[in-house]
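Example for tutorial group B:
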């Protein structure tokens, strides 16, 4: 990628990255929406199960469109897609905060999902494009650090805002952040126009269909019903048709030849599974903290912020380690630390020990931070540089799929254990976290027992 040295904004090299980071910040801040669930239910007079559509409408839209948006970014320019994303997000936040009915709120959440998909699909690629190629890993590390800042601020800061300003604060306070990012993004350098290529609209539609029904099927696992099977079948058929379409398309959204490397396929699977196990914290820890007498909502938010705080610390360290260490080694260390942290949380007892709980969350977050930087380093090095939008979108999409799957699978495990044990909550809590800790352990064994092929163990020069 060419460096736009002539643009005055690049006289201070960190400024462009901060602009991209500011726009990206509004997406991980969505973790704050969970804090507003009780108030939203009360405000609109909803039965509690209806609140799930606040999550589904947003996550389904974002995930199903992200890879297609990444491809659009490769074709039209990452800056342009990022501008669309921050602009749409600004309007969507206002729409959510002012929604007069639950239906309007859901429609605004769909729009918010579109904005988030646009931002995340091209955020990493845009950040990388603003700097020389040799700084790619360090730029990715700083980008992930800013993503972690958003995840940390979500439950901690917005817990206080909801207490003072109500449920709409989780949306209204993000609108100006997105708007400022939108305005500042106009100062970023315009990329040179590349060759015009067709967009595989059929592939994009099939991918959106398959991912949407996959997420709906996962959502219907608790409890499963006839619609679960229907959704799963539609998802499978959609993925098969998408796979065939991509082999036929002259310019596919994603080139499946890359996944012929076992190392590349496994590192992407690892990203899904590690994020699945990591979501156990945001899913179950709030219920544990709610059982602690005298622990206020803002205090609980600060405890939950320990995991993303670990990511914030780890990301720049991973960037420095990448200078002399293979990304596979960094990824393995991160995987191990994530498992250790999750096991530490499983040792929590009926009498809470907050310092040990926070330390375990920090270790888990630190491990995820190391892994994520190494993972993005591998993906962006393996996929050709002209397809950096797809590479970044793949990283974000696999992360989101892991999170959504974790929300369903881990809660299913927790509820089953709770129903079958006389000391329901604590036994289910501890066992679920031990199962979550086994996932990183299994990934390490899988990696160590496989013969090395190409990608995860060596740094690959991007193909031009």
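The residue assignment follows.
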């Amino acid at each position: 990628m060419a460096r736009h040295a002539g643009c005055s904004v690049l006289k201070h090299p960190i400024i462009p990255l901060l602009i991209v980071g500011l726009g990206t910040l509004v997406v991980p801040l969505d973790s704050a929406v969970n804090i507003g669930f009780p108030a939203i239910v009360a405000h609109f007079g909803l039965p509690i199960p209806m609140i799930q559509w606040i999550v589904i409408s947003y996550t389904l839209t974002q995930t199903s469109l992200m890879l297609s948006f990444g491809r659009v970014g490769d074709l039209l320019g990452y800056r342009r897609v990022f501008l669309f994303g921050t602009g749409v997000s600004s309007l969507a936040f206002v729409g959510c905060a002012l929604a007069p009915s639950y239906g309007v709120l859901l429609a605004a959440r769909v729009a918010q999902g579109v904005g988030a998909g646009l931002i995340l699909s091209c955020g990493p690629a845009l950040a990388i494009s603003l700097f020389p190629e040799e700084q790619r890993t360090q730029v990715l590390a700083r980008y992930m650090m800013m993503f972690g800042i958003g995840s940390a601020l979500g439950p901690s800061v917005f817990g206080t805002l909801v207490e003072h300003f109500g449920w709409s604060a989780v949306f209204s306070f993000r609108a100006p952040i997105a708007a400022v990012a939108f305005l500042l993004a106009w100062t970023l350098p315009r990329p040179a126009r590349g060759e015009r290529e067709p967009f595989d609209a059929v592939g994009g539609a099939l991918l959106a269909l398959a991912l949407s029904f996959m997420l709906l099927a996962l959502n219907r696992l608790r409890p499963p019903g006839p619609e679960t099977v229907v959704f799963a079948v539609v998802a499978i058929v959609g993925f098969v048709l998408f796979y065939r379409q991509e082999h036929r398309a002259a310019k596919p959204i994603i080139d499946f030849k890359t996944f012929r490397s076992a190392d590349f396929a496994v590192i992407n699977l690892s990203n899904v599974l590690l994020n699945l196990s990591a979501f156990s914290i945001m899913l179950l820890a709030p219920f544990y903290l709610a059982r602690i007498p005298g622990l206020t909502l803002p205090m609980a938010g600060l405890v939950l912020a320990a995991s993303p705080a670990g990511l914030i610390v780890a990301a720049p360290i991973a960037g420095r380690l990448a200078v002399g260490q293979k990304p596979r080694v960094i990824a393995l260390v991160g995987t191990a630390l994530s498992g250790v942290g999750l096991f530490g949380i499983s040792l929590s007892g009926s009498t809470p020990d907050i310092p040990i709980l926070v330390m375990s969350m920090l270790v888990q977050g630190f491990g995820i931070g190391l892994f994520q930087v190494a993972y993005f380093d591998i993906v962006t090095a393996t996929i050709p540089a002209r397809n950096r939008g797809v590479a970044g979108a793949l990283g974000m999409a696999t992360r989101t799929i892991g999170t959504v799957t974790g929300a369903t699978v881990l809660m299913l495990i927790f509820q089953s254990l709770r129903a079958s044990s006389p000391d329901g909550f604590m036994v289910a809590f501890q066992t679920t976290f031990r199962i979550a800790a086994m996932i990183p352990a299994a990934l390490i064994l899988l990696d160590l027992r496989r013969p090395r092929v190409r990608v995860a163990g060596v740094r690959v020069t991007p193909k031009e």
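The domain at 259-464 is CATH 1.20.1250.20 (Growth Hormone; Chain: A;). Compare this with the pattern of hydrophobic and polar residues in the output above.
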